[in-house]
Design a protein that fits this description.
three-stranded antiparallel sheet, five-stranded antiparallel sheet, alpha+beta
Length: 472
C-alpha cells in the first residue's frame, strides 16, 4: 500500500505545488473499502458469505461449504468483454491506420486492450498512459483504477488538468509520478518524501493519461456493471445455501417409532434402539410399537426460487437467459438466440462508443509523442470487431447482397471479419495476382490478325475513259 509522507501540512484551495497535487490526487485513489474493490471480489467469486439461516448450521457446515462458489458476476462481465475487440484505427481520406497499428502492436495491445475493458467493466474505470520510451517511440501502458487518479479541467468532461500514478515494486518501494500540461514530476523508487521529486517540462503539452469510464453519467462517477447485480447475487447465494443445508438436514427420510421403552446407558444417556441400514430390519416385541417415516424436504422449491432470481439477474444485466442455462430443456434455435442477444449486443455497442473515443485519444497521444500532425486528427475512428454472433452462411449471404449494391470490396472484407493486417495482405496479393496474370499474357502466343480483304474496285474509271474517248 502506498503511504503518503507524514511531514505534509494541510492546504486549502486549488493545488499549486507538485506536492499539493499529489496529496489531492492520492485522496481520490480508491482504498480497500471502496465499492470498486467489492465488485472485483464478486467478479473473482471471492465474495462468498456462507449466509446460513441459523448460527448452529454455520457451526456445523461452514467447513463443509468453505470452498463452495455459485457466482454469476463473472459471466455477466465476460459476456460483454468477450465481444469488445479493437481491430484498427482509421483517419478518413488520409491513411489506413498502418502507423496506428504499429503503435498498437509495439505495446502488445491486442492482448492488454481487453484487460483495460475488463477492469473498466468491473470497477468502473481504468486508465492508459502514453509516453515515450528510451528510443523515443510511444508506449501504451494500461493502469488499473486502484493505482491512479485524475482531475478534470473545470467545466470539461474529457480534458485533464492533472493525473498521478502511485506504484510499488516487489520490494515495497513506492514510485509516484505526476503529470500536468506544463511539467512532469517524478518521485523515484525508495524516496518517501514527495517534496524530493524531480520536475521536468512536459514535451507533449498535454496530460498523457486517458481514462476509460464505464457507464459514465453527466455529473456522476462511473460505476461497475455489477452495481445492480450484487444484491441479486447475494440472494441467490442465500437460497442456494439454504438448499444445501436442507439437503443435509431434511432431504433424507427420517424414521420414527413409538410404544417402546427407551434404554439408557450407565450415565443416563439414551441409547439408540436400532442400527438403521439398507440391510437392516426393524422389529419390536411390544405389540403397541408403531413405526413410521417423515416425508423428506422437497428441494424443488429452492430450484424454482433460484431460477426466478437468475431471470431477474438476466434482465438487470441484459445478458440472455441461455447464458445462465435457465429454462434450458429445449435448445433455442439460431434465430431465437440472435433475438435473445439483441439487448446484450446493444449494451456492447454502447460501450464501444465510449471506449472507442478513449482509444482515439490514446492514438492521438502516440502521434503527439512522434510530433506528427495527426495528433490533431479528431476525425479518427476506432474500428471494432462485429459484436454480434451469426452463422457463417447468414453472414456471407448478407455480404454478397451488399456486393450487388456496389459496396467496395475492402469494406466487405472488413465486415466479413478480416483484420486490417489481413486486408493489407489481400491488397498486396491482388497486386501480385494482377502482375502474374499480365506476365502470363506476355508468354502466351499472340493470335494472328485476320487477313485483310481488299474492297472490290468499282467501274467508275472505265466509264470516265469511255466518255473521254467519245469526246475525241
Amino acid at each position: 500500500m502506498i503511504v503518503p509522507p507524514g511531514s505534509h501540512t494541510a492546504f486549502i484551495g486549488k493545488p499549486e505545488t507538485p506536492e499539493q497535487w499529489l496529496m489531492y490526487l492520492y485522496g481520490k485513489v480508491p482504498g480497500s473499502g471502496h465499492p470498486s474493490q467489492l465488485y472485483s471480489r464478486y467478479y473473482e467469486g471471492e465474495q462468498q458469505k456462507l449466509a446460513f439461516s441459523q448460527m448452529r448450521y454455520k457451526a456445523a457446515f461452514s467447513s463443509v461449504f468453505e470452498q463452495w462458489r455459485d457466482n454469476f458476476c463473472g459471466t455477466i462481465i465476460d459476456s460483454a468483454n468477450e465481444r469488445l475487440h479493437v481491430d484498427s484505427f482509421r483517419i478518413p481520406g488520409e491513411d489506413d491506420g498502418k502507423d496506428a497499428r504499429q503503435f498498437w502492436q509495439r505495446s502488445c495491445m491486442d492482448a492488454y486492450s481487453t484487460s483495460v475493458h475488463l477492469e473498466a467493466l468491473i470497477t468502473g474505470v481504468s486508465y492508459v498512459v502514453v509516453w515515450a520510451d528510451a528510443k523515443g517511440e510511444p508506449t501504451i501502458t494500461p493502469v488499473p483504477g486502484s493505482r491512479m487518479a485524475v482531475c478534470y479541467k473545470p467545466g470539461s468532461l474529457w480534458e485533464l488538468e492533472a493525473a498521478a500514478r502511485f506504484e510499488m515494486d516487489a520490494w515495497g518501494r513506492q514510485q509516484v509520478t505526476l503529470w500536468t500540461e506544463e511539467y512532469v514530476y517524478e518521485v523515484a523508487y525508495g524516496t518517501t518524501e514527495w517534496d524530493q521529486g524531480v520536475r521536468q517540462p512536459n514535451p507533449l503539452k498535454a496530460v498523457p493519461v486517458v481514462p476509460f469510464e464505464n457507464r459514465s453519467r453527466l455529473g456522476m462517477e462511473p460505476v461497475s456493471d455489477l452495481v445492480n447485480c450484487v444484491p441479486i447475487q447475494d440472494a441467490i447465494n442465500k437460497i442456494t445455501m439454504d438448499a444445501l443445508t436442507a439437503s443435509e438436514m431434511a432431504a433424507y427420510p427420517q424414521r420414527w417409532v413409538t410404544g417402546i421403552e427407551i434404554q439408557e446407558d450407565e450415565n443416563g444417556n439414551p441409547v439408540a434402539p436400532f442400527n438403521v441400514g439398507l440391510d437392516k430390519l426393524l422389529q419390536a416385541e411390544d405389540p403397541g410399537a408403531k413405526f413410521g417415516v417423515f416425508q423428506p424436504a422437497d428441494l424443488k422449491n429452492y430450484v424454482t426460487l433460484v431460477d426466478m432470481l437468475v431471470q431477474h439477474l438476466a434482465t438487470v444485466s441484459r445478458v440472455p437467459s441461455h447464458y445462465f442455462l435457465v429454462n434450458s430443456s429445449n435448445t433455442p434455435s439460431g434465430e431465437a438466440i440472435i433475438s435473445a442477444e439483441a439487448g446484450l449486443v446493444a449494451k456492447v455497442r454502447e460501450r464501444m462508443l465510449h471506449f472507442g473515443e478513449a482509444w482515439e485519444r490514446v492514438i492521438r497521444l502516440c502521434f503527439a509523442v512522434k510530433n506528427d500532425k495527426r495528433r490533431d486528427a479528431f476525425e479518427m475512428e476506432t474500428r471494432w470487431r462485429d459484436p454480434e454472433y451469426r452463422t457463417e452462411a447468414q453472414h456471407i449471404d448478407a455480404l454478397l447482397k451488399l456486393k450487388q449494391l456496389d459496396v467496395p470490396l475492402e469494406f466487405l472484407w472488413f465486415e466479413a471479419g478480416f483484420t486490417s493486417a489481413q486486408i493489407a495482405d489481400f491488397r498486396a496479393m491482388r497486386k501480385e495476382d494482377a502482375k502474374a496474370q499480365a506476365d502470363i499474357q506476355k508468354l502466351l502466343p499472340r493470335p494472328e490478325p485476320p487477313p485483310s480483304i481488299k474492297p472490290p474496285q468499282g467501274n467508275a474509271g472505265n466509264a470516265n475513259r469511255k466518255i473521254h474517248e467519245a469526246k475525241n
